[in-house]
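Quick entry between incubations.
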Amino acid sequence: MIGNRPFSHALERLKRHGLRPTRQRLALVKLLFDRGDRHVTADQLQGEAAAAGVRVSLATIYNTLNQFTAAGVLREVIVEAGRSYFDTNTSDHHHVLIESTGELFDVPADHVKLTALPALPPGTSLRRVDVILRVSRQQDNPAS
Amino acid sequence: MIGNRPFSHALERLKRHGLRPTRQRLALVKLLFDRGDRHVTADQLQGEAAAAGVRVSLATIYNTLNQFTAAGVLREVIVEAGRSYFDTNTSDHHHVLIESTGELFDVPADHVKLTALPALPPGTSLRRVDVILRVSRQQDNPAS
DNA sequence: GTGATTGCAAATCTTTTGCACTAAA
DNA sequence: TTTAGTGCAAAAGATTTGCAATCAC
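Done. Structure below.
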């Protein structure tokens, strides 16, 4: 029952958000969501589309990623200076970043216990708490 | 006794890190460190330099910010997609980001209690834990 | 002097945008 | 048809780099 219905799955996901199921969007949705939780950059996603034989322009990739992020279907993760990651896991969770490679891993929310938070600036409300564990491969030289 | 020795302060800080005290670097160090903890972008810092009557090219601003970050005198804070902040506070602490304005505030390390952390990926060691509280001004409309 | 530092302009990289063309409803 | 979506190429921003001129030692 579960799995093996990639087409209807992708189609439903688009319709649910009022997006026309075009050839490009269907392909991107499949690439994004048929493989479990992932973190992709626009560039990576275009590479995967090309590898899958789907021609999609970078502009459309960006448009789609932004539309999905606005709709709450993707989540943008900002951990590196010049580049945005898009996370297919939109539930409450955190991240481990391997600094030398840029690899990102999810950390389930309940694996991090935040038992105290500071007072917020007056007139503001909390939207989200991001915890990022920056790690290096053990043999890495910080100065290299 | 404290304060009012901006020149020697800046000079010492440069010498300590083996950087020649050029006119530009002395001016930037003063702008950065004579005013308590701050978060600046390269662009902002150039604006301040200009306002102070010091002509420094953007390339030199970037070079200096990067040299200082490498030396551990500044810390790079990555919380927004296209832009890097440089933090004069290099001690263990976290941040509040007001999403609508890009304003950053320090959160002392002891105002956040992390009582549990996940297992790290095999072969990695923890470099730093960043906690970012993303807040909005209360009247902000998330969809606007 | 000699090597480090600077500034400019050009280059790079990621992301966005304008607009004519195409496809979905 | 009518409107949304796509792709291209150009534009926009932030940051880096090559190289000749300048400065610190």
